[in-house]
Amino acid sequence: MGFMTMGLENGLTILLAIIAFVIVLMAQVSVNGAFNKYKKVSTKKGLTGFETARQILDRNGLNNIHIVEVRGNLTDHYDPRRKVVRLSHEIFHGNSVASISIAAHEVGHALQDKNNYIFLKIRAFLVPVVNLISYLGYFSLFISILGGLTSYLMMSILIISATIVFQLITLPVEFDASKRAKVELVNLGIIDKPETKGVEKMLTAAALTYVAGLVSSILNLLRLIIMTRDSD
Asked: How does pLDDT run across 86-99, given as a tens digit for each residue?
């Protein structure tokens, strides 16, 4: 009976790992598909991602925030410490629905920063904490191997738990930034009504990657907990 239970639990851990992988993969395929579709759709007003970001920032009194071009694909982000919006080449120069959506989203984080959005502040506080836990955790994983499988699994659980807390805080930050982006794009007349649907689909696909990441982490945490029980 014990062997049967162990077999079922092993099968469950494998299933959880597969489901977690599939969820993340599907979310990534979704956002890549949306980006590849809407980067080919130019907006009628024809503003680039840079021009869109600059206009939203200036209209909100954030003339002090710089916009710079960075390398990579979809490496766009807002740096709250240096007050800089960083846009990848295609977003910076592109005048597509995808380009202005992503640019406006990153500016949404700058607007959060201006308004002291609580979840952004919490996330900024957690970044060094999570990084430290991950750094020490991965270092400890090598040491814990000597202490047996249980020690190894407990360290993995600690790392993933810290990641889940960070992801939970990240969700409202990302959804709120997308909401602000859409409002600004509409209010400033950067997009018209038909283009709004494309913007919504682009921002929704991007947001789902964060949801998928959280669900995947939770499933992996459950998998590790089950494995810890098996090792006892």
From this structure: 999 999 999 999 99
d(CA 160, CA 35): 29
Exposure string for 21-45, b = 16+ CB within 10 A, e = fewer:
eebbeebeebbeebbebbbeeebeb
Instruction: Report the percent of the chain where pLDDT is more than 70.
Output: 87
Any idea which of 168-177, 209-218, 221-230 has the lowest mean pLDDT?
221-230
Task: Name the helix (H) or strand (E) containing 84.
Answer: strand 84-88
CA distance 38 to 46: 14
Helix%, strand%, coil% for the chain, nearest 5: 75, 5, 15
Among 9, 69, 90, 106, which one carries the catalytic annotation? 106
Tokens standing for residue 223: 């998998």
Contacts of 50 (CB under 8 A, 6+ apart): 67, 69, 87, 92, 93, 103
Nearest to 159 by CA among 137, 132, 127, 131: 137
Return the number of other C-beta atoms located less than 10 Å from residue 50's C-beta: 21
Q: Give residue 33's identity as a one-letter amino acid code.
A: G
- 51 flagged as catalytic: no
Q: Is the dihedral of CA 183, 178, 71, 120 positive or negative?
A: positive
Domain residue extents for the chain: 2-231
What is the pLDDT confidence band of residue 4, given thresholds at 50, 70 and 90?
Answer: very low
